[in-house]
TrEMBL record:
It is a multi-pass membrane protein. This is Uncharacterized protein. It comes from Populus deltoides. GO terms for cellular component: endomembrane system. Coiled coil: none annotated. One of its GO terms (biological process) is phospholipid biosynthetic process. Pfam families: PEMT (PF04191).
Amino acid sequence: METTSVLLHSKTIPFSFTISINNRKRKLSFRHHDKHLQSHLSNTSVLSGQNLKPVKTPSNPPFSLYLSTSSLKITGTHLLSPPKCSYSGAVSTEGLQTHQFLKPLKHLSLEKLKATLLELTPVDIIKWSAILSAAIAATKWTVNLVINPFFWMYFSWTWLFWPWFVAISLAVYGLYCFYKHSIGEASIFEQLAIVTSVFTWLTLVPPAHFSGYLQGWPFVFFFVYHYFFFFNVSVRKRLYGDYYARPHDPRWDLNPPRWCRLLFCVGVMAGHWLAAFEGPELHLIPGGWINVGVWILILATLLMQYNSTFYLAKYSEKVAVPSAVVQFGPYRWVRHPIYSSTLLLFVTYFIALRAPLSLLFVVAVCLMYYAQKAKMEEGLMIETFGEKYLEYMRKVQYKFIPLVY
């Protein structure tokens, strides 16, 4: 019956063949439009429900089954469309993600929740309570800030008078360039980006934060700081035709311990922020002829830095390695005029902002740092030049400030 069912419901290509029984030919035809199979075989049903018994095949079979090429004809030229069924081994991503998302909730029950709560220790309760409290406080602060009209008013002012997003982006890019500089892969532009980001957060960001806008001296010193520290690379350009440092004897790379350098950088940054906090608002700083002294100090600082760098490079190999004891230019008054010019630059900036207490703080930070560095350099100079440098030290007794220190 299964065979009959398959044949009845299958869509086959119509064809016919002939069965010969005792020299009598019977034609059997299969057509797709027939509802049942018909064969005019005599009283013999091949597919009947009677009990099937093994049949012995005689030596001379009474009938023969053969296919005739002439009688095998395709009655239709068109082929029936195959059944439309497909199989895909890929699982739906959306359904899988939903299933994975709901998987933890599938086995969630009140008993398991109760067991989890009973396993919590006092330390876990304190930890999760602190996290929940911080999240609630942060959410409350954010909501209050968003619905506060004064915040949006101040935000609009920052876009008009001081673009904070530019300063933050520049700081992030400066940190990236500093990382490349630390591994020796920073280009000239990236080195300039480091200097620009540092000076932005020294001279522009602090007064803009406390005043809400910028005008006057912060803009001036932003460019003065750049020009001041550009002298070092400009000397390389003048001597070698480019801005890159040359390899030299590493024993001349004298630096205090890392913690000392870090404290110096933090102290200088803190001093600039304290000056912006201590000084009056920018529009209250007087202008006119009263600021002539500040301009004189700026010119003296730039000239001192340029002459110190130039004379040191003139009597040095590869700029960083001195070949003689320099006793010309600013070296006639102090033994370390480059450090003195840096200190004078900071002092001039604090005078311009009218911040005397911050001035004293940054002077103390610079003197402590540069004193350690000068001690290391003088020891190496004595080791290299001997009596010549000792004689120079007796001749020029002051390290940084003439007649003072």
